[in-house]
From TrEMBL:
Domain MOSC: 27-168
PROSITE patterns named among the record's database cross-references: MOSC (PS51340)
Lineage: Bacteria, Pseudomonadati, Pseudomonadota, Alphaproteobacteria, Sphingomonadales
Pfam families in UniProt: MOSC
Protein name according to UniProt: MOSC domain-containing protein
Superkingdom per UniProt: Bacteria
Amino acid sequence: MKRRIQAMCTGTARPFNGAETSAIMKRPREGAIQILQDGLAPDEQADRRVHGGPEMAVHLYPLDHHDFWRGELGAIKLLDEFGAFGSNLAVGDLCENDVHIGDQFLLGSALVEISQPRQPCWKIEHRFSAECDAKGMVAKIVKTGKCGWYFRVLETGDTQAGDTLERIKIGHSDWTVARTFTALIAGKATKIELEELAGLEKLSPKLREKARVKLG
């Protein structure tokens, strides 16, 4: 599995909602970008408690979903942006059902691994509501499962638009990103699934703990 990178996007924290700041407004960059264990350089996350760090170093939101959302929301300008959902990687023909927790990819010269689905937050809600009057985006993402995912960085390197994202190893083959999202974020896991997720080696510690808490 090899996909062409159409854009690499980064952002800086800026005023977003009153006193709040956000770096969700990611923009394409020219030239090579460093891929470090905490994320891209340069790139920022305004709230490091819930974004960024080793388990959420690089975010991919599938470009194919932009067409889906155009069908739902209309031809809004925001969906013309590669980083509309805060994504670092703009890649087509690759979705949540195609990849698994623990899948390893060559991203340019770096080695990355899928760590978890992306849980939609209020910043997506606010961005779409404020910029194009699209309401209820978080609920829509949860309902459709069009969530995107995060990579951790196993080996640092660099990449740029025009390089490839190539899968070289499949991780937990029973646990696609789509299934993991439905189980843990949409809250539809069975007890057996929660037990599996609580011990899923390549799943981020935060979501393994979430599964343990749900088990009670």
